[in-house]
Amino acid sequence: xxxxxxxxxxxxxxxxxxxxxxxxxxxxxxxxxxxxxxxxxxxxxxxxxxxxxxxxxxxxxxxxxxxxxxxxxxxxxxxxxxxxxxxxxxxxxxxxxxxxxxxxxxxxxxxxxxxxxxxxxxxxxxxxxxxxxxxxxxxxxxxxxxxxxxxxxxxxxxxxxxxxxxxxxxxxxxxxxxxxxxxxxxxxxxxxxxxxxxxxxxxxxxxxxxxxxxxxxxxxxxxxxxxxxxxxxxxxxxxxxxxxxxxxxxxxxxxx
Length: 256
Known about the structure:
The protein is α+β, with helices and mostly antiparallel strands. Helices cover 29% and strands 13% of the residues. It is built from 8 helices and 8 strands, in the order H-E-E-E-H-E-E-E-H-E-H-H-H-H-H-E. Strands 2-1-8-7-3-4-5-6 form an 8-stranded antiparallel β-sheet, sandwiched between helices. A hairpin with a 7-residue loop joins strand 5 and strand 6. The chain is globular.
């Protein structure tokens, strides 16, 4: 058997689909509660971006004051060295470290907490080299502390994000001793070569910037166009089918 085929089969067996199911609504740039059908079966793949809300009032107010209203968590799917899929996020729930979790279980935990979850699926799958670099970088960040001081710094004029500042500072630097969630997603993508390192601004990017097609920050509005860089529009994730809503087969991913 060809080694590449064997590797694919092993990775597939290690991908655990939840008994309740995994579905995406039709894509929309709206963060309302509407379930837009028909639903599609969803299997995570490296490079998919995870977004979620949070029910904690102080967490919501903090994001609102910082200009990041509506979305409070972001993470990135990658393939672990052993072939399993992992979802990396800095500071999930009440954790103060970077965690790598099972994608399905983590999304389910958010739904059980009353949150909503969205996925920006890769419509252009990562190349083998991009996926390998993403695995290398993400694996090295697991267990690092959450950048609590810099996260609170987003509420002050000292932050990198600004109408003028972002044009000149906040570029990717690779390894950091601490991370906040959206910063880690952007830095991982830059290291893997999924986005342009020259125009990326990890420390100035918030989870809401991954959702909407435009940003109030003029620099990000010009340079952070995820649809132009291989991502589908955001689609709400559901763990089960609403009654009377049969799913349609997932769309075939383009092949390299």
